[in-house]
């Protein structure tokens, strides 16, 4: 179920303030942990460093990204491929 | 066989079913269209008059998004997700389920036919 329209989209208030303070989108990136924050139109052009649980991933916000959440652009899982049979056997014993 | 909107040739079926052969028309839209044109949904598609076919085509063209146009819209939406490299876009790129379904088992619609891996323990064997 989606979020109630009455409340409007969730934009992390702290982050919104930071963006406002940054003013015009420059080269400065904003480090953040607010993965759950929706991207409002005001964020366009800004560069965010979005935490993925380990490091901060660089996200340049474009117009198409409005309405998505910051976390969607910072993958928190890394798939390195499956182990092959030999390695698996070694690990097992 | 009557042709509605160029390519679509609904079979010798009840109109409400025949219309669903058009991409973008399901049962409810089919019935809606029948009602609007005051056609009997049970009427066989082959029994439509020329005029009725034209009417159908006009309504579908004007008021519903069907066939090519709809397909393009869907493809564009997916292309957008891919371009912005959001999570859903990445899932589309990799051909994995997009809406958070499990992939340990199942997910065969997206992943295609089974590719058996030698030495992999069966699901039952895992605990």
UniProtKB/TrEMBL annotation, chain A:
GO terms classed as biological process: ribosomal small subunit assembly; translation
Give the span(s) annotated as Disordered.
1-29, 72-93
The domain of life for this entry's organism is Bacteria
Q: Where is the composition biased (Basic and acidic residues)?
A: 84-93
> What does UniProt give as GO cellular component?
cytoplasm; small ribosomal subunit
Ordered alphabetically, the record's keywords are:
Ribonucleoprotein, Ribosomal protein, RNA-binding, rRNA-binding
Matching entries from PROSITE patterns are given as: RIBOSOMAL_S19
Checking InterPro entries in the record gives:
Ribosomal_uS19, Ribosomal_uS19_bac-type, Ribosomal_uS19_CS, Ribosomal_uS19_SF
Q: Which Gene3D superfamilies match?
A: 30s Ribosomal Protein S19, Chain A (3.30.860.10)
Molecular function terms from GO: rRNA binding; structural constituent of ribosome
Q: Which family does it belong to?
A: Belongs to the universal ribosomal protein uS19 family.
Function, as annotated, reads: Protein S19 forms a complex with S13 that binds strongly to the 16S ribosomal RNA.
Q: Which NCBIfam families match?
A: rpsS_bact
What is the official name of this protein in its record? Small ribosomal subunit protein uS19
Q: Which organism's genome codes for this protein? A: Rohdeia mirabilis
UniProtKB/TrEMBL annotation, chain B:
Q: Does the keyword RNA-binding apply?
A: yes
Provide this UniProt record's keywords sorted from A to Z: Ribonucleoprotein, Ribosomal protein, RNA-binding, rRNA-binding, tRNA-binding
According to its UniProt entry, the protein's GO biological process terms are: translation
Origin superkingdom: Bacteria
| Annotated segments matching region Disordered | 99-127
Cite the GO molecular-function annotations of the record. Answer: rRNA binding; structural constituent of ribosome; tRNA binding
InterPro entries on file? Rbsml_uS13_C, Ribosomal_uS13, Ribosomal_uS13-like_H2TH, Ribosomal_uS13_bac-type, Ribosomal_uS13_CS
GO CC terms, sorted? cytosol; small ribosomal subunit
Q: What does the protein in this record do?
A: Located at the top of the head of the 30S subunit, it contacts several helices of the 16S rRNA. In the 70S ribosome it contacts the 23S rRNA (bridge B1a) and protein L5 of the 50S subunit (bridge B1b), connecting the 2 subunits; these bridges are implicated in subunit movement. Contacts the tRNAs in the A and P-sites.
Tell me, how does this one assemble?
Answer: Part of the 30S ribosomal subunit. Forms a loose heterodimer with protein S19. Forms two bridges to the 50S subunit in the 70S ribosome.
Family in the record? Belongs to the universal ribosomal protein uS13 family.
Protein name from the UniProt record: Small ribosomal subunit protein uS13
Q: Which organism is it from?
A: Rohdeia mirabilis
Gene from which the chain derives: rpsM
């Amino acid at each position: 179920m989606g979020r109630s329209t009455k409340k409007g989209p969730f934009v992390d208030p702290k982050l919104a303030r930071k963006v406002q303070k940054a003013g015009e989108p420059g080269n400065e990136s904003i480090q953040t942990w607010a993965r759950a924050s929706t991207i409002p139109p005001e964020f366009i052009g800004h560069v965010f460093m979005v935490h993925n649980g380990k490091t901060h991933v660089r996200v340049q916000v474009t117009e198409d990204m409005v309405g998505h959440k910051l976390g969607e652009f910072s993958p928190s899982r890394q798939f390195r491929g499956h182990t092959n049979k030999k390695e698996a056997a070694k690990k097992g014993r | 066989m009557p042709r509605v909107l160029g390519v679509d040739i609904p079979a010798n079926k009840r109109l409400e079913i025949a219309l669903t052969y058009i991409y973008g028309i399901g049962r409810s839209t089919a019935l809606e269209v029948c009602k609007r044109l005051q056609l009997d949904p049970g009427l066989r598609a082959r029994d439509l008059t020329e005029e009725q076919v034209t009417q159908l085509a006009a309504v579908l063209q004007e008021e519903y998004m069907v066939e090519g146009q709809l397909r393009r819209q869907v493809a564009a939406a997916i292309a957008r997700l891919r371009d912005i490299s959001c999570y859903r876009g990445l899932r589309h790129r990799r051909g994995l389920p997009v809406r958070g379904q499990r992939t340990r088992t199942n997910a065969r619609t997206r992943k295609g036919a089974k590719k058996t891996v030698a030495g992999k323990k069966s699901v039952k064997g895992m605990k």
